[in-house]
Structure formats: structure tokens, C-alpha cells
Amino acid sequence: MRVMFLGDVVGRSGRRIVVERLPGLIVDLALDFVVVNGENAAGGFGITEEIARDLIDAGADAITLGNHAFDQREALVFIERQPKLLRPVNYPAGTPGRGAGLYMARNGARVLVVNVMGRIYMDPLDDPFAAMEREIAACPLGEQADAVIVDVHAEATSEKQAMGHLLDGRASLVVGTHTHVPTADHQILPHGTAFQSDVGMCGDYDGVIGMDKDEPLHRFTTKIGRARFEPANGEATLCGVVVDVDEVSGLATTIEPIRLGGRLAPAMPRF
Ligand SMILES: [Fe+2]
Ligand SMILES: [Fe+2]
Which positions are annotated as binding Fe cation 1 (predicted)? Predict the structure, then answer.
């Protein structure tokens, strides 16, 4: 089976490229399952119910979030009625919504998706490694799940790589999000888990991690805020990975980056 993961959708330009291109990509690449990180979809901060619906209508089978999960306060409510929306699993007990879901792919496979957040250089949540051990134990690959996709939303590359190795052989794909810049280390780890430290964003790369560059530059140079952060609204690059998963073992056989539109060098999976 073939799965695609798209990195953090940032603002209007990020939403536009995903909504425009995802339906065609699902057909052209014969995708069985698509995960999209939507934590920055609403003006760069969080997600609304309408935007979640737009991403799902475009073909997202699950939407993961991160530290911006609840920036739009309505998400605290509608996440309870949107089973395809996941927030980090290691939020405190009692946080609205869920951090893991088991979904049916287009080929009939059962896909476990887990969203987990790192702690280094972030507002720390519960231990992400212990949380992942619990989630994988509750729904193991090859038993209750035919594929396992993990979004590690974290700042530190080291923490994301460590998570990849912890789950190597027990997940189909472990992919990093949050830093909004695609790394060139996509690979299949020794025990069969596809991995990339950061998948990049779906947003305008003529900015500072998807935001209009004026305010970040002002704050870095003067240390005084002048305005709100606004998403950069130039043409977005869609960034993600496409992974082939063995239908018997649930492990990855291929991982290829995909980059379309905007400013980054294009990449298209060679299948
Ligand atoms: Fe993000
Ligand atoms: Fe984030």
C-alpha cells in the first residue's frame, strides 16, 4: 500500500496548494492513505472546523496537529466530533480529543496514526517515548494495525531521530514535523521503518518558517514586537513524503520526498 504524509499546512497559500493538488495526487500516485499536519492551517495558528473539513474533503484521511493544536479555541470543542483530527497524544489526561486513531485505508488496510510531541526546546508535555510505547503496545503493527504512521512534532532533530530508532521495526513511517523545513535524511531505518527528521511545510518558503518575514526580522533585530505574525502569502510549496508499505509486514519498502510548486526544487516520487 502507498501512503503520503504532508507537512504543516501554513495559512491560506498552504491550504490552497493542498486543496488544489491533493485530489489529483491521490489518483496519480494511487495513494491508499493520506495524513496532513494541520496545526498552522488557520492563519498560521491552529485549525478551524471548516478548514479541517476542507482538508478532509480534499482527501486527508487523518489530520495531525502539534503545539498550535488549540490556538483556535473552537478546536477544543469540535475535535470531539471529528475523529480524523488528532492532537499530540502526550497532552495531560483530560485534554479534549485524542492523540491516536485507527482508520481504514482505501485498500482496506487498518492504519494506526499517532501524533506525539517532543519536549526539547518546547513547552514540555508528558514523556513522548513512554506515550509511544503505550500506543504501539495497544495496537501493534502486524496484529491490530496493518500500517502505523507516527507524526513526531518536535523542535530537536535529536529527539526525532531517537524516536525513529525507538520505533524502528514497529512503525511503517515515523516523520518529523514542526520545524517547517524539509530535511534530506529520508531513509528506511535498519529494521524497516521509513523516517525523515522533518517533512517540511506546505507553505510559502519566502518567509520565516511560513510567516511573513517582516515581523520576525523586526523582532530578531530589535527584540520588540511590532505586529502580529501573519502567514506569508506567496505561492506555496507542497512538501511531504510518499511511502510504500509492505502489505504483509507493514514495514516500508520505499520512501520518496514530494515537493511541488513555489520556491523549492521540485521532487516527484519515481514509482
Ligand atoms: Fe507547524
Ligand atoms: Fe509546531
Answer: 8, 39-40, 180
Indicate whether 254 belongs to any domain.
yes
In this structure, is residue 154 part of a structural domain? yes
68: annotated active-site residue: yes
> Based on the structure, what is the number of domains in the chain?
1
Q: Is residue 265 part of a domain?
A: no
Sheet of 187-188: strand order equals 100-104, 110-117, 147-153, 173-177, 194-196, 187-188
Instruction: List the binding residues for Fe cation.
Output: 8, 39-40, 67, 153, 178, 180
Exposed, middle or buried: residue 123 (CB in 10 Å: 0-12, 13-18, 19+)? exposed
Domain boundaries, position 200:
2-260
Query: In sequence order, what are the residues at sequence separation of 6 or more whose Cβ sits closer than 8 angstroms to the Cβ of residue 116?
Result: 88, 89, 90, 99, 128, 131, 132, 135, 150, 151, 152, 153, 163
Ligand 2 centroid–CA 188 distance in Å is 24
Residues of the chain predicted below pLDDT 50: none
Domain with 36 in it: what CATH number? 3.60.21.10
pLDDT at residue 150, rounded to an integer: 99
φ, ψ of residue 181 to 5 degrees: the values are: -130, 125
Within a domain: 269? no
- Annotate 42-80 with b (16+ C-beta within 10 A) or e (fewer): bbbbbbbbebbebbbebbbbbbbbbbbbbbbeebeebbe
